[in-house]
Structures are given as structure tokens and as C-alpha cells.
Amino acid sequence: MKKYVFPLMLLGTTVVMSCGNGGNKESETDTTTTVTTTDTSTLADNTVTTGTTYSSTPLIGADTTFVKEAASGSLMEIESGKLAQQIAINPRVKSLGEMMVRDHSKLYDELKSLASAKNLMLSDSLSKKSKDHLEAMRKMTGKDFDKHYPEMMVKDHTEDVRKFEKASNSANDSDLKGWVDKTLPVLKVHLDSAKAINQSKM
Questions:
Q1: Which end of the chain has less Cβ packing within 10 Å, N or C?
Q2: Are 88 and 94 in contact, with CB atoms under 8 Å apart?
């Protein structure tokens, strides 16, 4: 029986090598470059990680402008949200600020990943206008801040929703459109939350 072992081993080796070589045909014809990023979201105590694949096709025209404006807007929401947690007296205003920091930090990271895949560098600095606004907010008393911040969030997110709805219909890049469509419901929740606080008697 032992004399049959060696031929069988050779046959097995031949089959494995043939399978390995058969996969090279795809790489010869596939010229599309993709970049995979990791999107991590936490639900209760369970962390769910999913991979997001973006093409390396560069953004053009209005798509580039939109991404830069969206990134700048998220940075402002993050910093003003941090101030809300520090200065606000009303717990609902503090909670609104906490939600803005949490959600916009995630959205900003997602947008940076998308932009990086497209070879677009985003600034991580606030504009002078935003810096001046934040400085004015730092000088507000708790009650004044509680009035100003929800009003600001209503104004900002009304404009954000309008711009994102427009981008959803006009974006040329499919990756960007997908991100916009996923983000738009989040912004609408922010707007509704800010409106509810703004309309309540605090």
C-alpha cells in the first residue's frame, strides 16, 4: 500500500497549484482602484465594524466644494457642541451639544476617509468666522447660551438639510451621493431636536 502514497501526494500538489494559478486572470483585466475604510459604530455594548469601499476617482467641481463645506460645518458643530456641554445650564441643551459632538465627529471621520480615497486633503482648522463665533459664545452666560445655541442649531441644520438634499440630487460621484443619502436622516434628526428645544419654554 505504501507505494501509492507518493503519487497521490503529487496529484494533490498539482491540483493545489492549478487552483492558485487560475486566479491570476482577474488581476490582468481589473484596472479599478478602490480604497477600503473601516466604519465602526457602537450599539449598546456591542461594537459593529463594517468595511466601506470607495473608488479613487477624484471629485470634481461642485462635489469638491460640497465636501469641503460639509467638513468645515461638522468641525463647527463639534466645537460648539463642546461649548454647550460646558456652558449650558439646561440639561436638554447640554444633551443637544453632546449629540452634536458624537454624531458630527463620526460624520467628519467618514468624510475624511472618503476625501482621502479621492486624494482630497481636508483642513482640520476652523474658518476665522467660525472662530470668532465660538469666541463670542464663550463669553455668554448660561441662560444666554441656552437661548442662543438651539437657535443656532436650527439655523445651521436648516441650511445643512437644504444643501444635502441638493447634493443628493446633483452629486456626480456615486460614493459621495451614497454618503450624503446616509447622512441626511441624521441631520434631519438634529434639526427636529433643535427645533423642539428652541420652541419649548426654558
A1: N
A2: yes
Confidence band for 35, pLDDT divided at 50, 70 and 90 = very low
| Cβ–Cβ < 8 Å for 194, 150 | yes
Cβ neighbours of residue 14 under 8 Å, at least 6 residues apart?
none
pLDDT band at 51 (very low <50, low <70, confident <90, very high): low
**Backbone φ/ψ region at 38: left (φ over 0), alpha (ψ -120 to 50), beta:** beta
Long-range contacts of 188-194 (CB under 8 A, 24+ apart): 188/161, 190/99, 190/100, 190/103, 190/153, 190/157, 191/153, 191/154, 191/157, 191/158, 191/160, 191/161, 193/96, 193/99, 193/153, 194/96, 194/150, 194/153, 194/154, 194/157
Flag whether the pTM goes above 0.90. no
State mean pLDDT over 173-196. 97
Among residues 190, 192, 197, the alpha carbon closest in space to that of 107 is found at 190
Q: Which domains does the chain have, with CATH numbers?
A: 34-199 (1.20.1260.10)
